[in-house]
Every structure is written in C-alpha cells, then in structure tokens.
C-alpha cells in the first residue's frame, strides 16, 4: 500500500491542484494535511476566511471519501510526524515563492532526505511557474511587465487537472487530527464527534494527561453550548470499556455548576473566605504569560495553543494557571478572564471554578499545592513533542532538553527569553 502526505498551504482546493491530483493518481492512499503555523500570524479577518476555506476543503475531501488532517506547529516537523505516523513514503506540496515559503520547502526537503522520504513540489500557485519564462541574456527574471507579458502569453500553459473523484485515507491516522472544534460547531458535528470519540474511549484513562497525544474528547465547547446533552453523553459512555475516568470528568462539570449555583460570585470573589493571597500587580508578567513568552516552554506552549486554537489541553490549563498564580503571584481573576476571552468552551462555572481550585481560593482540599512546571513537563510531555509543536523557535532542541532552554548556550536558544521572575 503506497501512502503519500499532501501538505496543503495556500492551495486550498481540490480542482486543478496538481500536487493533490498527482498524488491521488500515483499513490493508493493519501493524507491531505494542513498545518496551522504559529510563525504565520493572520489578522481576525484573514483567520476567519482561512477557517472557512479549510472547512470547505474538508467537506470537498469528505465528499470524496477523504478528510483534512489539521495539525498545529512547525509545518516541517508536523508533516514529517504525520508521514511517519501513517507510514507514508512521500510528501508532496505546491511550490511557493516567498522567502518563508522557500525556506520551509528547503527544510522539508532536507528533513525528508534524512527520513528517507521522497519529496516533490508541484506548480499551482501561479499560471506560469516563476522561473519558467526568463529574459534572453541570462537574467533571473523580467524587470518590466510588457516583455514579460509577451513571453508569458507565448508560453504553453500546463493542462488544467480535474478534481480527483475518490480519495482513500490511511486507516491508522489518529482521529484527533480531523475535524477540530473551531468552525465545526453545532449539534450535527457534536453528535459525529461523540460517536467517533466513543470508539476511542478505552484509552482515555491512560492517555488523557499526555499532552502531545491530544487524546481527550474535545467535547467541551459542544457541552458548553448545549449542542450535546451531558445526560446523553453519560448514557452513551456508560457500559463502554474504560468509560469510568471520562464520566468522572463530566461529574467535575456538574460539581462546578452546583458550586456556582450556590456561590454566584465565583467569577470575582474567593470561594473560601479569607483565602485571598497578596497578588502582585505585574502587568509585564501578565502580558508575557498571555502571549506565551514567559521563558518556561511548557507554559508558553499551552498559552500559544490557547491563542491558536481557542482551546487548551486540561493538563496545560493546570500548569499555566498554577504558574500564573503560584509562581508569578498574579491574581487568578486576570488569568481567568484571559482564558474566558479566548476559550471556545469558556464557561463561568468550569473556568472560574477551576481557576479558584488552582489558585487555592476554591474547592481544592490542598490549597497550597503548587505544580512545578518542569516536573510536570517531564512527566506529561516526556519527549518535548507538545512544546515542539507550539514553540517552533525551540523545535530544533532534541528530547527533553527542550524543557530547559536556559541551560543551553544563547545561540541555541534562538532569541527565546530567559524565564521571567
Ligand atoms: C484553569 C482551568 C480553566 C478551565 N476552564 C474551563 C472552561 O472554561 N470550560 C470548560 O468546559 N472546562 C474548563 N476547564 C476544564 C477542562 O480543562 C476542560 O473541560 C477540558 O480540557 C476540555 O477538554 P475535553 O472536552 O477534551 O475534556 P475531556 O477530558 O474529554 O472531558 C470530558 C468533559 O468533562 C468536562 N470536564 C473535564 N475536566 C473538567 C474539569 N476539570 N472541570 C469541569 N469540567 C471538566 C468537560 O465538559 C469536558 O468536555 C478548565 C480547567 C482549568 C484547569
């Protein structure tokens, strides 16, 4: 079975897409992949447009029996990881021209070579590939439009390729790669997600704290907006092998709802009387935390995941919230409000209930508990893969050394800051 990964970048279509069509023609199985790259920020409008384009591409792929895998992080690292996970022997993509795109292409070509994968680029971003028509006399490009236009018109354009009719996906691609919550709202998507999640539930107890595995249900936004009934979720989970730890989490949800019902000021007042600490008024520290530039990689990875996806893994929520309140001593309300602003599942009971739990002002029976970010990182991201995904400037650091970049020479830290005090 020959498998290929097609890395989509800004060729978000199935019609006349040479990289995609050729791969579907030449391989038995194809993984269409888009990687959300934190190094390529986009304003709100462009993000919304991109989201729409990806959703539409996914529908077109699904209509052909395929799907769109969406990953987050450095596109080179993620494309290689995807290829290895599904046992692909090749990666294909459209060639592009910006300095960033070209360096991405060069890095990917080198990574493919060292992983013994074939790598091929295809045209498609322009009518005529940039270097296909050149001025006489050896120049690299035309400096004036009209002569360029004449050569361009005289050039034999490539044939338009049709949209492939059928796409076969690798059977072993993890379910969590497909159909992220953002943009996939509503009851219909929620019910689909629940069904596919229930097929995966047995592993939950062992793997739900593994940051890189990303194997929790991601049902929280649907539960928040009531696209799914929590009662029905429990009903469908009950009796399935390994469902107990998952059902327990749903109980946490009910727990905080009954706390909020009894204590409506949960968002603004400490739940335990006299539990308030003396918080520091540290605007710079708060901002560094919000932007994912604290110098503590596991914290920054979580905060960047929140910004990029409107969602954060529960373990990362615990680590980042503890870091803000018990390391930087910044008021839990500032952290809670920031989460609430960005989370798709932002929910008064669950958000502020959990924040107060972490800050020691709420329902934790051990209010002085403090998570060591480094120990948490070594335990729940032992290979550094989660950090590598969201903090691309550290992605070149191998293994768990990525968790302590301050131990490395400055050149290897590539501008990544020292931990803030
Ligand atoms: C500081 C902090 C802030 C949080 N803010 C929110 C929030 O605003 N909205 C929200 O829904 N959850 C919040 N949580 C709880 C938890 O992190 C998310 O519910 C979970 O990560 C959502 O992912 P999932 O659906 O894949 O969870 P799964 O692990 O698959 O759990 C299934 C469901 O159980 C419920 N659940 C899981 N953990 C908790 C928990 N600790 N408390 C309450 N309910 C839970 C959620 O509804 C979740 O969808 C917060 C946790 C922390 C530590």
From TrEMBL:
The lineage of its organism: Bacteria, Bacillati, Actinomycetota, Actinomycetes, Micromonosporales. Belongs to the DNA photolyase family. It is an enzyme of class 4 (lyase). InterPro entries: Crypto/Photolyase_FAD-like_sf (IPR036134), Crypto/Photolyase_N_sf (IPR036155), Cryptochr/Photolyase_FAD-bd (IPR005101), Cryptochrome/DNA_photolyase_1 (IPR002081), DNA_photolyase_1_CS_C (IPR018394), DNA_photolyase_N (IPR006050), Rossmann-like_a/b/a_fold (IPR014729). It comes from Dactylosporangium vinaceum. Residues 2-127 form the Photolyase/cryptochrome alpha/beta domain. Its cofactor is FAD. Pfam families: DNA_photolyase (PF00875), FAD_binding_7 (PF03441). This is Cryptochrome/photolyase family protein. Its EC number is 4.1.99.3. Keywords: Chromophore, FAD, Flavoprotein, Lyase. GO terms for molecular function: deoxyribodipyrimidine photo-lyase activity.
